[in-house]
Amino acid sequence: MVVDLIGSCRAFVSVSEAGTFTAGAAIARIPQPVASRRIAALEGHFGERLFDRSTRRARLTPFGRDMLPSAKRLVALADAMEHDARRAKLRPLRLAMPDICATRELAELDAAARALDVFLEFRQAAPRERAELVRVQEVRAALTVVPAEEGTWKVPLGLAGGGGPRAGALHLETLRAGRSGGAPRRVWIQPEDDVPHIRDRLFRLRDSVGLRPAQVSVAESLTAAAAAVFGSDDLLLCSTAQAAELGLAWRPIGEIRLARGYEITAGLGEDAQRIRARLWSDIARCLGAEETT
Fold it and tell me: Where is the HTH lysR-type domain positioned along the sequence (predicted)?
């Protein structure tokens, strides 16, 4: 017969402390017949009586007195393990996120995770830093940039500027100097998109349509890029969600399709799988990604 050693020891300790099977069962929060069966199973397992049942009170036998300290240690260890397990489940999973994610989107992602008993702690960082944070174990997982066709999440990019919304795509060739008679309009690339599969493709397009090198530039920060756009006719390479947040009119690029791609990088594969499986749509909303799998 398989003995529930921890449950039986818990009943044994409770009855020994209470002095009766009824009171001991109440302490252990189990019915009295269950306490009796568990103690009987423990006695059968050891081949010795733990209690002298010839009296109304539950009096320990000499064998029972010898076994009680070990039973108490086992129960205490089991309780400590349960406590540690509860703490481990509540320990935050540190997740490195793009620093473009707004507070509200991060809060909604956090709330969605908590509903699934997943507790996140965010660390926002630039693209190059996020994978490094995983490597040095400062975070357990990170949303890292990859080419869009390789990513779990895909965020289409276009050009956003001031003024009212316009229909159709915006072609970079229309920004060539001299066509409008004013200062050349510039396209600003924010640090989140300063990665080869986005930046270099846009630079090649810039050169092929005859724009000046300075007309497509990488900004020091998203704030700096947005400020340049607010104060001029310049354009920001961004997602539709970012354009809406900044109050800018967004249009796709006519000559090329660009998109951010994101994947989960984690020190443990099970962390990556858990985040991807349970929080896919919530991360998509946080990133402004397409809602497709």
Answer: 10-61
